[in-house]
Write a structure and sequence with these properties.
Strand order of the largest sheet of chain A: 1-2-3-4-5
Strand order of the largest sheet of chain B: 1-2
Oligomer: heterodimer
Structural class of chain B: mainly alpha
Shape of chain A: globular
Largest sheet of chain A: 5 strands, antiparallel
Distance between the termini of chain A: 88 Å
Structural class of chain A: alpha+beta
Strand content of chain A: 15-25%
Number of strands of chain B: 2
Number of strands of chain A: 7
Chain lengths: 253, 231
C-alpha cells in the first residue's frame, strides 16, 4: 500500500527513553483533553441529572412528563421540600433538594438530614420520600410517595447503578414499580412494616393490597431484598415526623 | 521535545498525503469504505463485535446511536493512530491504541451525557464497552498502523458502518416483532392485537439476536458466493 515510500523520521523508536517520553507526553495530552471536556460539559450534565430527579419525584405521584417539562411541573406540584433531622424537626438551613443521600447515609443518624418532598395535586397532598440502599452489585435508589393518610403508597420509582440486566435491573420497569401502588407501609396496629419484596407470597397478581408484600422478580432475590431493606430503613427515620404530622392533621380536624 | 517530533511528523504525513497520487475516492479507496458493508463485514464475516450486537439491538434507537458512536470512535481513532504511526514506540503500541480508543470513548460518553441523556442512560455500560469492541482495536492494529490518514479514515468509517448496518438490521426485526414498534412508535395496528396477535417476547432476549444474525449470515452467503469456504 505504499507505506515504504514515506520519509522515515530518524530516531530510535525502540529505545527505552523514547518509549518513556512518548508515554509521558501521551498521558499528558490525553489527560488534559479529557479533563477539559469533562469540566466544560459538567454543567450541562448536572442539569440533566437535576431534571431527571424532578422527573422521578413527579412520577411517584403519577405525573409522567419528559425531562424538559419536569422543571415547570415540579414547581407547580411540589409545594414544600423539607430537610428533617432525626427528631422530625425541620432544618431550615439545609436545601432538601441538594441533599445527596449517598453521602448522607454514611453519617451517624444524628447528623443526617432526611429530605422530604410534599406535593399537592388536585387538593390531595402527598409525601415523597427518597430512598437509597444496596442491591446485589452496587447502589439502588428511588422515591416512594405516600398518600395523605401517611400509609398508602401512591407510587414508587426505582433506579440502580449496576444491577444485572434482565434480572435485578428489572426493578426500574413500570410493571414492577406498579406493584407497590396502594400497598400499605403500616400494619393494623400502626407499626411500620414497610413493603416486603417477597418470593413466597401467594399473591403474584398483587390483588391483596393489605399484605405489605409485592411479588419478587425471579432471579433478582438480592436486589429485591435490597428494595425491601431500603424502604423500611429509610421510612423508619421519618417516624417522628409522621407522628407530628398526624397530630397536626388530627388537631385541624 | 515531543512537540518538535509531532510537528515534524505532521509535515511528514501531509507530504505523504500528497504522495498518494490517486484521487480521494479511487476505486481502491471506495472499496475500503464498501467492503466492510458486505464482503468483509466485521460482524457477519469476521464475527467480531458480536457481544454488543446482541446486547443493544432490542430497539432501533439505541442501536442507531451505538452505530453512530462507533463510527465516530473508529473514524477518529483510526485517524489519530495513523497520524502517529511513525511515532508510536513499537513495544507499547497496543497500550497506545487502547489509550486512544478509551479517550475517544470517554469523549463520546461525556458528550452523550450532556446532549442525549436518555440515550446515554439506555446505552449505559455499552458505550464503555466500545473500548473492548474487537473491531476497533483490530482495525487500528491491522490497518491504521500501516496506512495513510485518509485511507485509515475510510477504513474506520467503513468498518464501523458495516458493524452499524448489521446492528440496525437486527434491531429492526427485534423491535418490530418483539414490541411491535419501530423507533418507539407502534407499527403493528391494534386491530391485529385484537385478533389475537402477540408480540414475540423471545425476540427481546439475546438468543434471538444471535439467531437473527445467523439468519442474516445465511442469506448473505446464499447471495454472495464468494463468502462460502471451499474445503
Amino acid at each position: 500500500m505504499g507505506f515504504s515510500t514515506q520519509n522515515r523520521i530518524v530516531m530510535n523508536r525502540d529505545s527505552n527513553s523514547y518509549t518513556f517520553i512518548f508515554a509521558t507526553a501521551m498521558v499528558f495530552v490525553v489527560a488534559s483533553t479529557l479533563a477539559f471536556t469533562a469540566s466544560s460539559l459538567k454543567s450541562l450534565q448536572a442539569e440533566n441529572v437535576r431534571k431527571e430527579k424532578m422527573q422521578n419525584i413527579l412520577s411517584t405521584i403519577g405525573i409522567q412528563t419528559d425531562r424538559e417539562q419536569a422543571q415547570n411541573l415540579y414547581k407547580k406540584y411540589i409545594n414544600r421540600t423539607l430537610a428533617l433531622d432525626h427528631h422530625g424537626n425541620v432544618d431550615e438551613n439545609v436545601d432538601a433538594f441538594q441533599i445527596k443521600l449517598n453521602n448522607e447515609i454514611k453519617k451517624p443518624e444524628k447528623e443526617q438530614r432526611f429530605p422530604l418532598y410534599k406535593a399537592l395535586v388536585n387538593n390531595m397532598s402527598y409525601y415523597i420520600i427518597p430512598l437509597r440502599g444496596s442491591g446485589l452489585w452496587d447502589a439502588i435508589w428511588g422515591y416512594i410517595a405516600l398518600k395523605s393518610d401517611i400509609n398508602t403508597i401512591q407510587g414508587a420509582v426505582f433506579d440502580h447503578k449496576a444491577e444485572t440486566a434482565g434480572l435485578g435491573a428489572e426493578i426500574t420497569q413500570q410493571w414492577f414499580m406498579d406493584r407497590f401502588k396502594d400497598e400499605k407501609v403500616f400494619n393494623q396496629s400502626g407499626q411500620l412494616v414497610g413493603i416486603r419484596v417477597s418470593k413466597t407470597n401467594n399473591d403474584p397478581k398483587d390483588f391483596d393490597k393489605n399484605d405489605h408484600e409485592v411479588d419478587a422478580i425471579s432471579g433478582a432475590t438480592i436486589t429485591g431484598d435490597g428494595v425491601t431493606n431500603m424502604i423500611i430503613e429509610r421510612l423508619t427515620h421519618y417516624l417522628p415526623y409522621f407522628e407530628k404530622e398526624r397530630t397536626t392533621i388530627a388537631s385541624i380536624k | 521535545m515531543p512537540d518538535r517530533e509531532l510537528t515534524s511528523s505532521k509535515k511528514n504525513t501531509f507530504l505523504f498525503l500528497n504522495e498518494e497520487s490517486e484521487p480521494l475516492f479511487s476505486r481502491k479507496n471506495r472499496a475500503l469504505l464498501t467492503d466492510p458493508l458486505d464482503d468483509n463485514n466485521p460482524i457477519t464475516v469476521q464475527v467480531l463485535g458480536i457481544c454488543s450486537a446482541l446486547a443493544i439491538t432490542v430497539q432501533l434507537k439505541p442501536a442507531l446511536v451505538m452505530s453512530l458512536s462507533v463510527v465516530a470512535v473508529m473514524g477518529a481513532s483510526n485517524v489519530i493512530i495513523s497520524l502517529l504511526r511513525n511515532l508510536i514506540p513499537n513495544r507499547i503500541r497496543i497500550i497506545v491504541q487502547l489509550v486512544v480508543v478509551a479517550s475517544m470513548v470517554i469523549l463520546v460518553d461525556q458528550i452523550l451525557r450532556a446532549y442525549a441523556y436518555d440515550v446515554s442512560k439506555q446505552l449505559s455500560i455499552f458505550i464503555g464497552l466500545i473500548i473492548t469492541n474487537c473491531i476497533v482495536m483490530g482495525r487500528l492494529e491491522a490497518f491504521a498502523l500501516g496506512n495513510g490518514v485518509w485511507k485509515s479514515f475510510l477504513d474506520g468509517i467503513g468498518n464501523a458502518a458495516g458493524y452499524g448496518f448489521i446492528l440496525i438490521v437486527v434491531a429492526f426485526f427485534r423491535e418490530l416483532f418483539g414490541s411491535g414498534k419501530l423507533f418507539g412508535y407502534q407499527i403493528i395496528p391494534d386491530a391485529l392485537y385484537e385478533m389475537g396477535y402477540e408480540n414475540n417476547g423471545l425476540m427481546l432476549l439475546s438468543p434471538m439476536a444471535l439467531i437473527t444474525v445467523g439468519v442474516f449470515i445465511w442469506l448473505q452467503r446464499s447471495r454472495n458466493r464468494k463468502l462460502i469456504e471451499k474445503n
